[in-house]
Inverse folding.
């Protein structure tokens, strides 16, 4: 079995009357010659790393490399703890988890790249917050991670997943789309809905540039993870309601590649454009590296 | 490609190229040196030099030299750990010509054994690495597959002997590169394998008359 596009992924799942996660798992078993349980335990280990990162980020101040971030998840957490109504809102949980993992990443902590380290807060935030809310077990979370990975894999066959080559749409944009698909599966949607959620999320992140301040994975990256994660949740809800992306997912991936090619290099991780060359960014850069 | 390259790997942040790749390069230098490191000089080039401390590139290279892989939480404290292990190190900047922007030159020394290693390698994206020079000879070493690095006498038929020994042990060669500095001098052979070679393979290679060194480098 093989899949090269999101269309193939969802039609395979529908033909076999199963989920996208099951197709992704089966293909991985064939390719890697590992058993179902070996793959499961590898993904379970990744899940543990994600959980630990969330815990660490929401409970601790993080010392990041440049010191531009480090207390955002902590602030969210204390805000939520003092506002029960806000705490009950799943979007707020998603935001605080995404900030947490992303800050742990910025502070040389352990994370799971998904698809990259810079975008590593998005998928865990969405699946962990949803699983808590819906009281789902690890088995289901692990399945949703296969779905996320399978969708990301399709992108990687046709496009880049590196900010340096395709801008942030290829990192946070793709992570958001992967998370949206995973969320639909966790929430009981069909394979077609998974692909639509992926499409809706990716479509609305097209054109996002990579312009990190002082070249660090801190600003805008940490808060962008939070934005992309909540965006994923919105896309998954629209898809569950039966809303479809007019432009098919596979065509959006091609559009993303073309946009990435057309983006000038100053907006692709070189820190030579966009936010990175604002007066404040230049001053911060001087402060961080000038005195090195 | 595996799904664990998309939802994974587990690694120490913040950057696959500047942190994970840097740790792999340090680890590769350690494996190539295969002796205790008294002193290490790490010279960072290009983007590696520009954002070294912010991305932990410097700490990651030193961590790799201490034997830490990209998902090892000790990477963050590698400077202190290096001191504890009596490994002297210095981090410098360098401008190399015609190399990838994320490149490092690593020099390792062991005085007692009078050993030295000079390695140039780059982090080429997504945590993947490419070693391009070892002790002045250009090579191409990625660390993605189990690899043998063999130094042998440069003479007709020597490479055939090496490949036939591997064949006898049912080891399949994926890629192979052969280099030498001067005709008739020492040849250097880098062989990437589909599977991990057993001890007996390395022993029979080492026993061969004109083979001076056999070094096994596991996939990183
Ligand atoms: S702005 Fe650039 S460095 Fe930051 S998350 Fe996006 S792609 Fe990664």
């Amino acid at each position: 079995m093989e899949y090269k596009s999101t269309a193939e992924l969802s039609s395979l799942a529908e033909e076999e009357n199963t989920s996208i996660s099951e197709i992704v798992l089966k293909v991985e078993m064939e390719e890697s010659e590992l058993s179902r349980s070996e793959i499961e335990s590898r993904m379970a280990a990744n899940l543990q790393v994600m959980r630990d990162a969330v815990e660490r980020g929401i409970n601790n101040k993080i010392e990041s490399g440049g010191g531009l971030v480090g207390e955002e998840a902590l602030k969210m957490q204390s805000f939520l703890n003092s506002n029960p109504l806000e705490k009950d809102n799943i979007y707020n949980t998603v935001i605080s988890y995404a900030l947490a993992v992303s800050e742990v990443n910025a502070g040389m902590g352990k994370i799971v790249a998904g698809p990259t380290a810079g975008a590593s807060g998005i998928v865990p935030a969405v699946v962990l917050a949803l699983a808590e809310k819906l009281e789902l077990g690890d088995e289901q979370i692990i399945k949703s991670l296969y779905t996320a990975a399978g969708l990301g894999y399709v992108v990687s066959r046709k496009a880049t997943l590196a900010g340096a080559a395709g801008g942030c749409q290829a990192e946070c944009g793709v992570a958001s789309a992967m998370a949206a698909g995973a969320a639909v599966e966790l929430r009981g949607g069909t394979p077609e809905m998974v692909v639509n959620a992926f499409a809706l999320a990716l479509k609305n992140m097209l054109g996002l540039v990579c312009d990190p301040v002082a070249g660090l994975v801190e600003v805008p990256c940490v808060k962008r993870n939070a934005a992309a994660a909540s965006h994923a949740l919105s896309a998954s809800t629209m898809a569950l309601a039966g809303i479809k992306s007019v432009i098919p997912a596979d065509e959006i991936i091609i559009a993303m590649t073309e946009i990435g090619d057309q983006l000038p290099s100053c907006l692709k991780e070189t820190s030579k454009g966009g936010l990175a060359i604002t007066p404040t960014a230049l001053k911060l850069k001087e402060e961080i590296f000038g005195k090195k | 490609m595996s799904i664990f390259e998309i939802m994974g790997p587990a690694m120490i942040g913040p950057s696959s190229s500047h942190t994970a790749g840097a740790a792999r390069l340090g680890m590769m230098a350690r494996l190539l040196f295969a002796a205790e490191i008294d002193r290490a000089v790490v010279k960072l080039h290009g983007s590696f030099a520009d954002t070294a401390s912010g991305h932990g590139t410097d700490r990651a290279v030193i961590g790799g030299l201490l034997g830490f892989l990209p998902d090892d939480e000790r990477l963050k404290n590698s400077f202190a750990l290096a001191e504890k292990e009596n490994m002297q190190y210095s981090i410098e900047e360098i401008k190399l010509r015609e190399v990838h922007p994320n490149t490092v030159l690593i020099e390792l020394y062991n005085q007692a054994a009078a050993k030295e290693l000079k390695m140039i390698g780059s982090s080429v994206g997504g945590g993947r690495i490419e070693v391009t020079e070892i002790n002045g000879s250009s090579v191409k070493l990625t660390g993605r597959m189990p690899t043998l690095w063999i130094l042998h006498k440069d003479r007709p038929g020597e490479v055939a002997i090496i490949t036939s020994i591997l064949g006898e042990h049912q080891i399949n060669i994926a890629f192979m590169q052969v280099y030498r500095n001067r005709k008739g001098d020492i040849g250097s052979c880098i062989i990437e394998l589909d599977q991990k070679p057993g001890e007996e393979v390395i022993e029979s290679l080492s026993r061969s008359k004109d083979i001076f060194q056999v070094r096994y480098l596991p996939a990183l």
Notes: Chain A touches chain B through 50 residues (CB under 8 Å).
